[in-house]
């Protein structure tokens, strides 16, 4: 996806998020994030938007220091204005990305994009899209389906970004393979789970477990947002690997 497409997705998903939050009690539980109420979800996503904006706006070459981060996370708007606060921060993030120069130089934390501007546009599009799914879950009504192009991109960011980092807990003493294959796009990822960080190849081959289905459903499944037994993902092979994924492939 191009940077402009990521920014468009961020704008769209953030609007859907705010709309879901606006029609739901802020004390509603978030089924996809069991420890959170909707209020926690809105605060978290609004804080992340402001944190991302600060790195972009200031061209920070290193991660924000603890005091600066705490200043952002200290914002705790009252319930009466919380959704408006979210909309304001989301809008500033979109505007900051649109105004940023193509050669922007600032800190990033995943090797998933060709430059910092592309990284932040991509990361915030998926941060917001996934938490929009959470807001819909709290509202008790499924929102619009994630666009296949965005879902494909999000699968790739998760697998070749977060899950391939050394701090991922996804490990297996005996090497095991998972083939992820989408039916509505060109996505093919062959994963090798071992005692080392996840290895990902953009190829198709026999595997211990094969997951096949629409990009949107695989996107939600791999982000642990699709309850077991739901969705259109076909599974063949050793489903114990899927249990391992649910237990250890988490983002903190």
Write the layout of secondary structure elements.
Layout: H1 3-22, H2 38-58, H3 66-73, H4 82-99, H5 116-139, H6 148-160, E1 176-182, E2 188-193, E3 199-201, E4 209-213, H7 215-222, E5 234-237, H8 240-248
Parallel strand pairs: 1-4
Antiparallel strand pairs: 1-2, 2-3, 4-5
Helix pairs in contact: 1-4, 1-5, 2-4, 2-5, 6-7
Termini distance?
25 Å
Helix % is: 40-55%
Note the main sheet. 5 strands, mixed
Quick one: overall form? globular
In short:
This protein has about 250 residues and is an alpha+beta fold.
Polypeptide structure, described:
This protein has helices at residues 3-22, 38-58, 66-73, 82-99, 116-139, 148-160, 215-222, 240-248; strands at 176-182, 188-193, 199-201, 209-213, 234-237. The two termini are 25 Å apart. Helix content is 48%, strand content 10%. The chain is globular. The model has no long low-confidence stretch (mean pLDDT 95). It has 8 helices and 5 strands; from the N terminus they run H-H-H-H-H-H-E-E-E-E-H-E-H. A hairpin with a 5-residue loop joins strand 1 (176-182) and strand 2. The chain has 252 residues and is α+β, with helices and mostly antiparallel strands.
